[in-house]
Each structure stands twice: as structure tokens, then as C-alpha cells.
From TrEMBL:
Keywords: Coiled coil, DNA-binding, Transcription, Transcription regulation. Residues 57-84 form a coiled coil. InterPro entries: LysR_HTH_N, LysR_subst-bd, WH-like_DNA-bd_sf, WH_DNA-bd_sf. Gene3D superfamilies: Periplasmic binding protein-like II, Winged helix-like DNA-binding domain superfamily/Winged helix DNA-binding domain. It comes from Paenibacillus vulneris. Belongs to the LysR transcriptional regulatory family. This is LysR family transcriptional regulator. Residues 1-58 form the HTH lysR-type domain. PANTHER family: HTH-TYPE TRANSCRIPTIONAL REGULATOR, HTH-TYPE TRANSCRIPTIONAL REGULATOR GLTR. It comes from the Bacteria. Pfam families: HTH_1 (PF00126), LysR_substrate (PF03466).
Length: 300
């Protein structure tokens, strides 16, 4: 079907005037008339009939106009969609995040982003660092947001550091090491409550022990969630090694205490990872720009 001729027909039918259609389309009346006659011949259907000094739609023409109106309405919707998608006001962002950004950072980031881009859909998967990287590489996520980068990652991953926080050893207030300074050797004799294998912070603790030729920590209790691990330590069991962003409110309230391990001052990197040399959707680019400008605000 000749869509150009269908558009001419649609404009004539909607304005009920060849003259008006000629003005709107900037095409001469004889040219429009000739194309409509050719279109009717192509379809083997009369679309217009004489009426006084003008024309009117035939029964077939009225039905054709209903269909044409729907077709060109969808065309307008497609044009609007491509415009909105190009400018990032719609779309779908899939995020794989480790516990720290998922629970401490992302809620505020997403709330701020959605205030400006309400129509953008967002899917957040909370997982450990190994699985977050796997989801990114398998194109199951558009962004991976880490609280503590893996020691190695493929060249196909682009990493942008957002900011850093500290990693703390913490215990319950009644623990013998609460607010004390101890050696790494003595600290590793304590029972540890940690996240599951694959957790970035757990890997950092093991790497710390390798660096200082210390024995590995005695991880006697592990949870799939950091909140559960912290709760167990607050209840009085063992020690943990965790981001200050997560536990500083507990320390400030006196529910946990720091242990100052001699010579150990570790930083935890908060970063966003994308697939290198693969363009982001405009919506995802807007989201990254927003978190660059609003990296972290500690709750009061």
C-alpha cells in the first residue's frame, strides 16, 4: 500500500477539503487529486464521492478513514516514544547492586531520580559482588554498583569510582575488645560473623590476612544478608568487618563498638560498573550523572 497516498487521503478526510489539505501539505490541488485517483485505482475502492461543490467520503472511505486515523495515531505514539527514549524520560534501567549500595545508597538515589524521571522503570537486584559482575557481563543488568570492587575484573568492564568509605572491625559493647586497640593477630582469634562467600567485604578481610601473613579469620557464623550478621554481633556474638556507612549509626547509638586494629586503615570503594565500549541508554546515563552529583548523604 502507498502510505504517502494514504496520508494524503487521511488529511483530506480529516479536513473535508482538498484545498485545506493542499495548504497543510504544501502540495498543489491537481497533484493531490491525481494521487488520490491513482490510490483509488490501486485499491479498486472509491473513497470519495461528489457532494455539492465539494466531496464526501463513501461508505468504504469512512471505514478507511477510521483505520487510517488509528494508523497515524500509532505513528505519533512511536514518534513520541522515540523522542522520550532518546531524551531519557522513559526506559528501563536494570541494576545489580551489592548490599551496601542496595540498602544504604540506592533508595535515596532512586527517590531523587524518580522525582525527575517518573516514567523510567527500574529493577534492582541485591546480590554479592561476584554475581553482580556476572549479571553485568551476561547483559542481565545495565549497571553494577559495588561497595568494594573485586580484586580483578575483565577488560570489558568500565569502572568509575564514586567515593570511598572506611572498613571497620566492630563488636558488641560488652566485648573485651570494644573501643580497644589490638593486633591483627589477636583480632583473628575472635569468632567472626560475616556475609556468604562471594561477598566483597569478606574477600577484603581474607586479602588483608594474606597481605599481613596472618591466619585467616574464624568465620563461625555466616548470613546471606548483612543486616542479619550485624544483628548477631549486636546480640553479643563474635565480631564483624563491615563498611562504616552501614554500621556508623549503630556505633553512634552505642549498639556496636569499633575495634582499632594496629596499622590497619582500609578504604572501601563505592563504584559503578558498565560494559566498556557499549553505549548506555539515555535514562541510564541520566541516572549515573545524578549519582555523581549526589554520592551520599548520611541519614540524620
Amino acid at each position: 500500500m502507498n502510505l504517502h497516498a494514504l496520508r494524503l487521503f487521511h488529511v483530506i478526510a480529516s479536513t473535508q477539503s482538498v484545498t485545506r489539505a493542499s495548504e497543510i501539505l504544501n502540495i498543489s490541488q491537481p497533484a493531490i487529486t491525481a494521487q488520490i485517483k491513482k490510490f483509488e485505482k490501486e485499491l479498486s475502492i472509491p473513497l470519495f464521492k461528489p457532494q455539492g461543490r465539494g466531496i464526501a467520503l463513501t461508505d468504504a472511505g469512512e471505514k478507511m478513514e477510521q483505520l487510517a486515523k488509528r494508523l497515524f495515531a500509532v505513528e505519533q505514539q512511536i514518534e513520541q516514544f522515540t523522542h522520550d527514549y532518546h531524551h531519557g524520560s522513559i526506559g528501563h534501567i536494570r541494576i545489580a547492586a551489592t548490599y551496601l549500595p542496595a540498602h544504604v545508597l540506592l533508595p535515596a538515589w532512586i527517590a531523587k531520580f524518580k522525582q525527575q524521571y517518573e516514567q523510567v522503570e527500574m529493577t534492582i537486584t541485591t546480590t554479592n559482588s561476584s554475581d553482580a559482575l556476572k549479571q553485568l557481563l551476561n547483559v542481565e543488568a545495565d549497571l553494577a554498583i559495588y561497595g568494594g570492587l573485586p580484586e580483578e575484573y575483565p577488560d570489558t568492564v568500565q569502572t568509575e569510582e564514586l567515593f570511598q568509605d572506611e572498613l571497620w572491625f566492630v563488636v558488641a559493647p560488652g566485648h573485651k575488645y570494644a573501643n580497644q586497640q589490638v593486633s591483627l593477630h589477636d583480632m583473628m582469634k575472635e569468632a567472626f560473623v560475616m556475609r556468604e562467600e562471594g561477598s566483597s567485604t569478606r574477600e577484603r578481610l581474607l586479602a588483608l590476612c594474606r597481605t599481613y601473613n596472618s591466619t585467616n579469620p574464624r568465620i563461625t557464623l555466616q548470613f546471606n544478608g548483612l543486616h542479619e550478621a550485624i544483628t548477631a554481633v549486636i546480640a553479643g556474638y563474635g565480631a564483624s568487618f563491615v563498611s562504616s556507612l552501614v554500621v556508623s549509626p549503630y556505633v553512634e547509638r552505642g549498639e556496636l563498638c569499633r575495634v582499632y586494629v594496629e596499622g590497619i586503615h582500609l578504604q572501601n570503594t563505592i563504584a559503578v560498573c558498565t560494559r566498556r565500549q557499549e553505549p548506555l541508554s539515555q535514562a541510564a546515563a541520566h541516572f549515573i550523572q545524578m549519582i555523581r552529583q549526589n554520592p551520599y548523604r548520611r541519614p540524620s
